[in-house]
Amino acid sequence: MTDVKTQNAISLKGSAQLVKEFFHFGINSILYQRALYPAESFKREKKYGLALFVTHEKKLQAFMDPLLHQVEYWLAKKQLKRLVMVISEVKTKEVVERWQFDIHTEDLAEEGSSDNPIIGALNFALVIPPLVADEVKKRPEEHDSLRGRIVRIMMLPSATKDVASEFLFIICKRSVNRMIKYVGFGHSAGHLANMGLLGQINQPKHASDSEDSETEDYNKVRDNVNPVTGAMYPPDHGSALAGMTDAQKEFEAMKLVDAMNKMMDAGIVKPGTIGEDGKVREVSHVLELIKDAPDPEEGGSDSD
User: Fold this and answer.
1) N or C: which end of the chain has fewer CB within 10 A?
2) How many domains does the chain have?
């Protein structure tokens, strides 16, 4: 069997009963989202303010119920450090996904505690589970998952888009790179600009942005994902500049500069760059968008 990277490492704290509840709903949700059992074998339940899916398939219940009771017993005794859920191929036993839940038994709360640290971990597992290659074949908003529905709300011309954006940003652990990966820069740019966080898009990624949000097959296609759309480039994607000489490239670039300046003068577009405050700053000339570009006041273009 090939080595498979841990798909999800979630740290859990809370009472034994609360952590057991998380496993119950979390495992059921993974089985439902990955379509490992028919959708009709699940029923909808309301918990933590969320609509969750729980199996009513008797054989699966007969397997999970005693397992979860044993998990609760180990938790109460503070004997459980980690629980791992593995999805593997039936015939080859090859591991497809591996979910790891680390439990801090020294921090387990007393029964009846009013704190509920499980909700954040559950939201993370339900809304933005680790990416797989098939998911980035389509744009985020084209999916019927929770993430896809929230992204579609972000596209609405109403105040709810701000609530949806902030919710996803919180679920993404307020990581700009993680937000762009799950939503696409095109959908998240407005929210990041309003918060003054656009300057972080060029900062080095943290290891945590990848270790619990990417699967092995996603890593194989990651370089083919368009960060603006959050989906893979089309199969026939290629460079429009392929085969051009440097002189030809410069000529085409200046044609684009002139065209953009004409649209700016006509008030059709207002290009901007990222200011020191991490927000969008309007530019007076398109060359301001290019690093180390010549001063636009020092010379113009020969074209019309």
Assistant:
1) C
2) 3
Residues 133 and 121 in one domain: no
Assessment of whether the complete model's pTM goes beyond 0.70? no
CB atoms within 10 A of CB 286: 19
Tally Cβ neighbours within 10 Å of residue 193: 16
pLDDT band at 295; cut points 50, 70, 90:
low
Is 183 part of any domain?
A: yes
Provide the strand spans (E) within 138-276: 225-226, 231-232, 272-274
Question: 9 - beta bridge partners?
Answer: 100
Q: Which residues pair with 281 in a beta bridge?
A: 273
Q: What is the DSSP letter of 29?
A: H
Tokens standing for 57?
């398939």
In this structure, is residue 89 part of a structural domain? yes
> Which of 186, 209, 238 is the last residue before a domain boundary?
238
pLDDT for position 121: 67
pLDDT reported for residue 293: 53
Q: Specify if 304 maps to a domain.
A: no
**pLDDT tens digits, residue range 93-110?**
888 888 777 776 544 444
Shared-domain flag, residues 293 and 192: no
